[in-house]
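request received
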Amino acid sequence: MGGFTAAPGEQRGNALEILSIDNYSVSYDGIKNAVDAVTLSVAQGEILSIVGESGSGKSTLLHGVLGLLPRGASTRGGMKLFGNEIARMDDKARRVLCGSRVSMIFQDTGRYMNPIARIGAQYDEYLRIHGMKDVGQRRDLQRRMLLKLHLTDPERVLRSYPFELSGGMRQRVGIAMAMSLNPQLLLADEPTSALDVTVQAQVIRQMMELRESTGTAIVLVTHNIGVAAYLSDRIGVMQHGKLVELGRPRDVIEHPCHEYTRGLLDAVVEIDDERLIASHG
Amino acid sequence: MELKGLTKVFPVGRHESLRAVRNVNLALNRGECLGIVGESGCGKSTVARMVAQLTEVTDGHILFEGRDVTRLSRSRRRELWRNVQMVFQDPYSVFSPRMTVGDFLTEGLVHFGMASRPQAQGMLPGLLGRVELPAELAGRLPHQLSGGQQQRVVIARALSIQPKLLILDEATSALDVSVQRQILKLLMRLRAEMNLTMLFIGHDLAVVRSVTDRIAVMYAGQLVEEMPSAALRSDASHPYTRRLLESVFSTADRGRKQIGIEDLSLIEKGRMLEGCPYQPRCPEAMPRCADACPALADMDPGHRIACYARKPGNMLER
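response:
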C-alpha cells in the first residue's frame, strides 16, 4: 500500500491496460446506482467514447476515476489506474497522479481557473507542481502548447486574465494545459460541447494528434454521437447508470444491439436527414 | 416581415464599438419557416432580439406586414408583442419559480385582454393539450417539470395569444437528443396546424436545416448566404458555409473525413475589417476581398451569396 508508485513490476502484468473498471457502482444523495455495475477497460493509446443523455451516469463515471465524486458518495466494485486500485490510494498519491499521468478537461474549463490570476501564472504553477523545475523549460512548453492549439499569440494569452478570453479560447488553454505533460490518460467531459463547430473540429483534430504522437489513451464523455463515431476506437452507451452497449463505432452505429442505442441513434438529427417538416407538410 | 439594412452597433468602452449586425437584408413570408445559423457572436440572436423589439435598432428598418415597426412607442410595442413571440434556450429562466404552470400559461391571455382569468383557466387543458401535455400539470411548479416539459409549456404560452410570428432562439439546443427531436416534431405539427410563421435560430446546422424552408448563414454580423434548406448540403457555395458543413460530425463519417488545419486566431480579426469579414480565414480570398464587402447577390433563384470568389462578374458592390 502506501500510495501509488510507478514501480515497473506492477505494470508488467498487463502493460497495455491503463484503466480498468470492474463491476463499478456509485450511489450518492439518495440516487441509488447513478453508475450501475459498469465494467470496461481502456488500453494504451485507445480512444473510448461514452455517450448517453443527461443523467445517464456518464460524467459520474469519469469523476469516479479522479476521485471527484461528491462527498458522501459510496462506491462498489473496482477501479484500477495503471494496475492500482484507486480506492486504496491516499489523497496525496492520487493528487500526484492526477494532473501528470492522468489529466482531465471539463466542458467549461474557465470555471476551474482562478479568476484573479493571469493565465500564465496558473499555467506555470501547474507545471511546477507537477515537477518541471526549470523556469525556461516551463515557459517554452507553455508557448509551444498554446501554438499547437492555434492560439497564435501565446504571449497575449499568458498575460490575460481568464475573463479576458472568449470561452473558446479559455477552453483551448485548458486543453493545452491538460495535454502539456503528455498524460497517459486524458479524461474529457464534454470538452467541445460549448465550442463553435469549426473550433470543435480543430480540438478534435488536436486530440487525435495527441494520441498519435504520445500514445495517450482518451476517455471522452459526450452527447454528440457524431463526434464519438468520428474519433473513437470504441463507443460505450450508457442509460440509467448502466453500460448498455460497448463496441466499435461501426458495429454500434450500423448494428446496435440494445434498443436504447437504436432510439438514441434515431433521435439524432443528421445533416442529410429527410426533413422533419416533410412529414407534416 | 422584412429586414432592410438592419444594423446594430454596441458601444464597447468609451471609444470603441462592436458591429454586432451589419446591413442585414432578409424577408420572411407568411407561413414560412426561416432559419438563421452561425457561430457564437455572429449576430443571429441580436437579429432575433431586434425583430422581437427587445433590443434597439441602430440603423435600418424592420417591416411587419408592410408597416415600419423599427421604432415603436410603448403602446405600439405591446401591440407588436401580441403578434411576435419569442422562445429562448433555457426554459427555466423565463418561469417565475413560484408561479404555477397554469398561472404562467394564462398570463399572456389575461394581459392582452383576450380572456378573463376564469375563461383563461378554462382554456388550460386545451393549451396544454396542444403541446401534448396532460392537464394535471397546470397545478405544478416549474421545477417539478423536466426540461422538455418546461420548454413545451413555454411554447404553449407563446402560442396562447396566437401570434403571427414565433421566434425560436436556440430553443432546442440545451435538450437531450431524444427530447429535442420530440420538440422539433411538435413545432412542425403546430406550424402546420396554426399556419405559423417561424424564425428558427440555432448553431446546429443539421437541426436548423431539418425544420426550415430557407436558411440564412451569418458570419461576424453579416449575412453571407441564403438558400433553400433542402439544398444546403449540395448547393451551399460560400466558403464559410462549406467550412461549417465540413465541421459537422455525422454518425456516417466515422474517421473518414479530413479536418483541415485552421488558424483560429483569425476568427477574431475579421469583424474589424472593412472588407469581407471571412477574408482572413478564407482559402479563396482575393485582394479585392480586403477592400470592400461583397453584397448579397443572386446566384440562382432563391439562392443569394455574398462572395467575390463565386460569381466574379455578377457581384454588385455595396
